[in-house]
């Protein structure tokens, strides 16, 4: 966009803001499965002229199916942890044959995504300190949730 010769006289910051606004409008319209009349009304409220609204709606209509497919592939809800398993891994030697004696934990989170129903596993390795930090943050989150539900 910044290299377009027709837009060279426009401040780059304004162009970036316009691009972000247009992208947000397109994504929200796709997410809401808005029809052309709803989009037109919204753009009229934003004081766009009829010619630009018609051009925008024409382009939107041409790309609507691809946009909906793309948005559908992203998903709508975060993963939900259903179970956790862990095991202690003890590294005795490094690949340079030096003795290291470093314990670490291999943690596997069993998760499901309500949109797709798939159950991918999320696995990571951490030290005891990192695991303690994670447990502390989870306890803090649980306390915050408990306080929020009591209000």
TrEMBL record:
Per UniProt, residues of the COMM domain are 80-149
Q: Which CDD domains match?
A: Commd3 (cd04751)
**A GO biological-process term:** sodium ion transport
Q: Where are the transmembrane segments?
A: none
Which InterPro entries does this entry report, sorted A to Z? COMM, COMMD3
Q: Which family does it belong to?
A: Belongs to the COMM domain-containing protein 3 family.
| Protein name from the UniProt record | COMM domain-containing protein 3
